[in-house]
Specification:
Elements lengths: L3 E7 L3 H11 L4 E8 L6 H14 L7 E3 L13 H4 L21 H10 L6 E5 L4 H9 L7 E7 L15 H5 L1 H8 L5 E4 L1 H4 L6 H8 L4 H21 L9 H8 L4 E6 L1 E3 L10 E3 L11 E7 L1 H12 L3
Parallel strand pairs: 1-2, 1-4, 2-3, 4-5, 5-6, 6-10
Antiparallel strand pairs: 7-10, 8-9
Length: about 300
């Protein structure tokens, strides 16, 4: 079996960290590099957090590149109220010793795709889409060579989690999202409608802890911290593990169900800025541009996640 070549673009964040660990534990995926963007916390923290997670997994061989430190046109909005002041509150991970690569993340994305055969590389954005949009804008020739973009972002039936109508990743840089959604690349969207069904609970967190490994302990600690916000906000038994759903989709797409529909990004309205307008019922007449995932087999997802984390 040939491993699927991917670039992960991320802004850790506890759920980003779990997604990275899942990818690193999966031989079906060949992680060419990890590019980092400002989002959940500023870039100076997201790049450090990414390297911490690589070292936790024993994967300091994966190059990490820092990218854009602010959205294309707007001031940066962060989410320390969810993720804590470090972005990875809940796990006491040591300062990384692996070095940050000198190249800018956008340059790495452009050059890596340009030097690949068409259809070889999948982009996996887990945060705001600034780096991806910048790459597509600066190098439109790479668009046709991208195999697929599988991203976590947006929401339609669930609406928003940072405003009444917008999910955080899209809201932080809606102009970037508009570029990505309009690029004509094969696009799969994992929105809140899906991820809000991938909830932790006491048994699932315990399963991480009883792995008895540094990775299991760290993931249990991260999810313990991450849960407190969502339990209070939603009254749920746990927290949605948003970003690992992207990696799980690459590994076991049969765990997910969705529709190929038109999805547009609102960039003008102050009331609904960052909204993902998903034409689920196909009433607009607009051309479909994304597979919009609505459902997940949550038991299968957590079985996969726990088994893979146990390999690290």
């Amino acid at each position: 079996m040939t491993a699927r070549k991917i670039i992960i673009d991320t802004d850790p964040g506890q759920d980003d960290a779990v997604a990275l660990l899942l990818a690193m534990a999966s031989p079906e995926l060949d992680i060419l590099g990890i590019t980092v963007v400002a989002g959940n916390v500023p870039l100076a923290l997201t790049e450090v957090n990414t390297r911490k997670v690589c070292e936790l997994a024993g994967r300091s061989d994966i190059p990490v590149y820092a990218g854009c430190d602010a959205p294309l046109e707007r001031p940066l909005v962060t989410a320390e109220h969810v993720h804590g002041k470090t972005g990875l509150d809940g796990a006491d991970l040591p300062e990384p010793t692996m070095r940050l690569q000198d190249r800018h993340a956008v340059d790495f994305i452009i050059d890596t795709i340009r030097n690949s055969d068409p259809g070889q590389i999948t982009l996996c954005p887990l945060g705001p889409l600034t780096n991806i949009a910048e790459a597509l804008t600066r190098a439109p020739d790479i668009t046709a060579k991208i195999a697929e973009i599988v991203l976590m972002g947006g929401g339609y039936f669930e609406q928003g989690n940072i405003t009444p109508s917008a999910e955080f990743n899209i809201y932080v840089d809606p102009e970037a999202a508009k570029i990505v959604f309009g690029a004509g690349v094969k696009l799969t969207v994992i929105p809140l409608d899906c991820t809000h069904k991938a909830l932790t609970n006491p048994a699932r967190v315990k399963a991480f802890r009883v792995l008895g490994t540094p990775v299991g302990d760290a993931v249990a600690g991260l999810t313990d911290f991450f849960e407190r916000f969502d339990k209070e906000k939603y009254g749920s038994v746990g927290a949605p593990l948003h970003d690992p759903c992207v990696i799980a989709y690459l590994l076991q797409p049969d765990l997910f169900q969705g529709r190929f529909i038109n999805v547009e990004i609102e960039t003008a309205s102050q009331l609904t800025l960052g909204s993902t307008v998903a034409d689920w019922w196909r009433v607009s007449g607009r051309k479909p541009n994304a597979t919009f995932i609505r459902d997940i087999d949550d038991e299968g997802f957590f079985t996969l996640l726990t088994e893979r984390l146990g390999r690290l």
